[in-house]
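Intended use. Records like the one below are meant for learning the mapping from a protein sequence to its folded structure. Do not use them to infer anything beyond what is encoded.
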Amino acid sequence: MSELSIILSSALLMLIMIDPSDKILLVALLREDFEIEDIKALIIRANLIGFILLLSFAVAGQIILQEIFHVDINALKVAGGFVLFKIGLEALESGGMFTLKREKDILALAAVPVAMPLIAGPAAITAVITLTAEYGYKVSLSATAIAMVIVALSMFIALYVMKSVNKTFLGVTIRIMGLFIMAIGAQMMVEGVIGISERLLNVSG
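Structure written out for the chain above:
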């Protein structure tokens, strides 16, 4: 597989982990109470903060795990896979991944909950650290940048296209994404268990 193919497939993984569908729902809900210019400022600030957070985990996440906490990447896959499975299950059951608290100042929502955990949540953080461990910084940083551009663009498009939110359609979309996230979480857990088993066999051998 070429490097470009790896980057594109990794970008798709990051896009699924970040999941633009609930960000589109957020934008549609905010349109009911705030001006477009205020929501645009929120989108820019939230995506910038989320991008910086994910880049930080991509660069330093593996070092922190292995050098400070001495956590094996396969253990992270098992734990992260469990978290992903739980997030996907909640999305599948409820059709939503967040609860929006009304704020008088819309920019107060930019860091929490939009940037974190809606953008840089447990799923995305686990994915970006795993990508760095498996493919290196170039792939993980490029994939994250591509995914973040798509997320930001989808939010801006939703801002001008969705004058009213079709909650049924978005609920179905989020449930479908939840199913994919569950499957990815299950796969990560299996890969983590296999990796730990192989390491133990090599040590014992």
